[in-house]
Specification:
The protein has about 550 residues and is of the alpha/beta class. The protein has three domains: about 45-150, 2-Layer Sandwich (Copper Amine Oxidase, Chain A, domain 1), CATH 3.30.457; about 165-230, SH3 Domains (SH3 type barrels, Roll); about 245-460 and about 515-555, TIM Barrel, CATH 3.20.20. It is built from eleven helices and 35 strands. Strands 21-22-25-26-27-28-29-35 form an eight-stranded parallel beta barrel, surrounded by five helices. A five-stranded antiparallel sheet has the order 5-6-7-8-9. α5 runs parallel beside α6 and α10 (about 520-530) packs parallel to α11 (about 550-555). The chain starts with a helix and ends with a helix. About 35% of the residues are buried.
C-alpha cells in the first residue's frame, strides 16, 4: 500500500516535470526561436537603414552596387523613401528629382547631373535593369542632404539626413545588442568596450542604438558614456503672426502706385503685380517694376511689410499650356522668377495662374514642385493662388490642391466670385456658408494643413440688374457701395450668408446686391481663428472702405 503511494507521488512529480518542460518548449518556440531564426537567417541582398529605420523589407526592388562601386536604388524606391514627386520626363529623356533646396536633373543616356543650374560629371549615370530605372544614390548625397555610408562587412547602406539630430556615445564595457529590450531577446550585434554607437532613443533602463555595422537594437543605458550631440535637428522657422496680406494690383501698362507717406493698419505683406507672362514668350516674363516699383519696395520695407510679388499668367491659356508641357520652358520661367526675386530682394513670390487646361493640372504641379527648391535656396517664400474646388474645367479643375498645398509654403484660397460676371444667375460674391464648405473640402478632402491656407477675401461686390428676364451685373468696390445704392435703402441681414442684402426697383429694373462691408468681412476673417488658418489676403488695395483694415486687424488678433 505504502509502495503504491510512493509510486503515485513519483508519477505525479514526473508528470509535473514533463508539463514544465513542455511549457518551456512552447515559450521557446513562440518567443525565443523566431528571434533566433531571424538573427541567423542568411541575407544575400543589401540592407538599408534610413534615419535609423531598417526599411529593407519595404524595398520594392533590390539595391545593388555596380562594378564602379556606385550604389543604385530603383526609381520606385526613390519615390517611396526620398522624393515622392520624382519625375520621368520621357520627352526630354531625363529624370527630375527634388529635395529641400535642390532640383536635380539626370539625363538617361549621360553620366552627368544638373543641380540647380550647375552641371557635374558622375562616375556612372542612370542604369536600367529589368525595364526599371535606377539612380546612383551614392553620388546624390548632396541632392538629398544626406550622409550615405556603405558598410561592406554587413552589406548595409546607411542614410542619415543632415537636418536630423544625431547623438553618438561610447560603450563602457563589452555587451550584446538585443533585438528587444530584454536580456532574453536575440542578439543583433556584439560590442566591445570603447566602441561607438548612434543613440536613437533612451527608454529608461534600455537605450535603442545603432552600431557601426548598421545593426539596430537595445543595450543597457548604464553602459553608455561620453554622449556627444554631433548635430541638432534643423528647425524651419515658423511664422508666429497671422498673415495679413493685400494684393496691390496695377496694369502692366502703368507704373506701380505711389504709397509714400501712407501706412495700412495691420498689414504685414503686400503683393504688387510686378511680373506677368509674355504672350507666346516661351517662358519669358514681363517686368513692370522700374523706378516706381523700386520706390514701392522701399516704401514697403520702411514700414516693415514683406513683399511677395505676384507672377501672373494673364490668363493666357495657350501660352501657359506650352510652358507647362516643356521642361526647358518651365526651367526658363523658373530661372527668370529666381533672378527677379534676387534682383529686387523680394521676400516672397505669389503665383497667380488662372484659366488653365484641366489636362495640364499635373504639369502645373510639376512647375510648383520644380520652382520650390530654387526659391527655397534663395530664401524666398512661395505662395500659390487657387480657386474653390469643384468648379469649371479651366477655372477650378486645373489645380491639384493637395500637391500644391504640400509643396508650397502657402496656398491662397481665392474665396470669391461664388457668382461672377458670367453667372446666369444672380447671387453673392462670397457667402460665408460657401466659403466654409470649400474650406472644409480643402482641409478634409484635399488634406491641406490648416496653417498653410491663406483665406482670400473680396473688397468688392456686384450690383445685379434684372430686366425683361435678362440678368447683368457690374462690379462695385466696397468703398463705393453706399454711393451706388439709393439713400435710405433698407438692408436685411442674411444669417446664412452673413451679409447684408438689398433689393429695389427703379424704372422697371430690379436691382439686387449682397453687400461686402465691415460686418461681412469681420465674419469671414473670423474663419481664420475658427479653422486655425495662416491668415488672410485681401483683393485688392484701393477698393476698401476706410475702416476695413482696422476690422481685419482686430479680428485677426482676437
Amino acid at each position: 500500500m505504502r509502495k503504491d503511494k510512493m509510486n503515485n507521488k513519483k508519477l505525479v512529480f514526473f508528470n509535473i516535470i514533463k508539463i514544465i518542460i513542455f511549457l518551456c518548449l512552447i515559450i521557446f518556440i513562440f518567443m525565443v526561436a523566431p528571434n533566433y531564426v531571424k538573427t541567423n537567417k542568411k541575407v544575400d541582398k543589401i540592407s538599408i537603414i534610413i534615419n535609423n529605420n531598417n526599411v529593407t523589407e519595404r524595398l520594392k526592388n533590390s539595391l545593388y552596387i555596380n562594378d564602379k562601386n556606385v550604389i543604385y536604388m530603383s526609381i520606385d524606391d526613390i519615390q517611396n523613401f526620398l522624393d515622392k514627386y520624382v519625375y520621368t520626363d520621357s520627352k526630354e529623356k531625363q529624370i527630375i528629382t527634388t529635395y529641400g533646396e535642390k532640383i536635380a536633373v539626370l539625363p538617361l543616356n549621360e553620366s552627368t547631373i544638373k543641380i540647380n543650374n550647375s552641371t557635374f560629371n558622375l562616375i556612372s549615370g542612370i542604369e536600367t535593369k529589368e525595364n526599371k530605372f535606377y539612380l546612383p544614390i551614392s553620388q546624390m548625397a548632396n541632392v538629398y542632404n544626406m550622409e550615405i555610408t556603405y558598410v561592406k562587412e554587413s552589406k548595409t547602406i546607411i542614410l542619415d539626413s543632415l537636418d536630423r539630430k544625431l547623438v553618438r556615445a561610447d560603450i563602457s564595457k563589452n555587451t550584446k545588442v538585443k533585438y528587444k529590450d530584454t536580456i532574453f531577446s536575440k542578439t543583433e550585434d556584439s560590442l566591445k568596450k570603447g566602441n561607438k554607437v548612434v543613440v536613437i532613443d533612451e527608454q529608461g533602463k534600455w537605450t535603442k542604438v545603432r552600431t557601426s555595422l548598421g545593426k539596430i537594437g537595445y543595450i543597457k543605458s548604464s553602459i553608455l558614456q561620453n554622449k556627444v550631440i554631433v548635430r541638432e535637428k534643423l528647425e524651419k522657422p515658423i511664422r508666429k503672426e497671422k498673415v495679413n496680406m493685400v494684393w496691390d494690383y496695377y496694369s502692366e501698362y502703368v507704373s506701380a502706385p505711389s504709397r509714400n507717406n501712407t501706412t495700412i493698419e495691420g498689414i504685414n505683406i503686400v503683393s504688387p503685380s510686378f511680373f506677368s507672362l509674355v504672350k507666346k514668350g516661351k517662358g519669358d516674363i514681363s517686368e513692370n517694376v522700374g523706378q516706381s516699383g523700386i520706390n514701392y519696395i522701399n516704401w514697403a520695407k520702411s514700414n516693415k511689410y514683406e513683399v511677395w510679388a505676384m507672377v501672373s499668367n494673364n490668363s493666357y491659356i495657350e501660352t501657359t499650356s506650352e510652358i507647362l508641357n516643356s521642361y526647358k520652358l518651365r526651367e526658363n520661367l523658373i530661372n527668370q522668377i529666381v533672378n527677379v526675386a534676387n534682383k529686387y530682394q523680394l521676400d516672397g513670390i505669389n503665383i497667380d495662374f488662372e484659366n488653365m487646361n484641366e489636362e495640364d493640372k499635373n504639369l502645373f504641379s510639376r512647375f510648383i514642385i520644380e520652382l520650390k527648391p530654387r526659391l527655397e535656396e534663395a530664401g524666398v517664400i512661395l505662395s500659390v493662388d487657387v480657386t474653390a474646388p469643384d468648379g469649371g474645367e479651366t477655372w477650378s479643375l486645373c489645380y491639384d490642391r493637395n500637391v500644391i498645398g504640400e509643396v508650397a509654403d502657402y496656398i491662397v484660397f481665392m474665396a470669391y466670385d461664388q457668382y461672377g460676371s458670367s453667372s446666369p444667375k444672380e447671387g453673392t460674391t462670397a457667402g460665408y456658408n460657401w466659403i466654409e464648405t470649400n474650406l472644409s473640402k480643402l482641409l478634409n478632402r484635399e488634406e491641406i494643413e490648416s496653417q498653410k491656407i491663406i483665406l482670400g477675401i473680396p473688397l468688392y461686390t456686384r450690383l445685379w440688374k434684372e430686366q425683361n428676364g435678362k440678368i447683368t451685373s457690374q462690379t462695385v468696390n466696397m468703398k463705393s457701395v453706399n454711393s451706388v445704392l439709393p439713400q435710405n435703402i433698407s438692408k436685411t441681414w442674411n444669417e446664412e450668408l452673413k451679409q447684408n442684402y438689398v433689393e429695389y426697383k427703379q424704372n422697371e429694373v430690379t436691382y439686387k446686391m449682397w453687400i461686402e462691408d465691415e460686418d461681412s468681412i469681420r465674419e469671414k476673417v473670423g474663419l481664420v481663428k475658427k479653422y486655425n488658418l495662416a491668415g488672410v489676403a485681401s483683393w485688392e488695395k484701393d477698393r476698401e472702405s476706410p475702416n476695413i483694415w482696422t476690422v481685419i486687424n482686430e479680428e485677426l488678433n482676437k
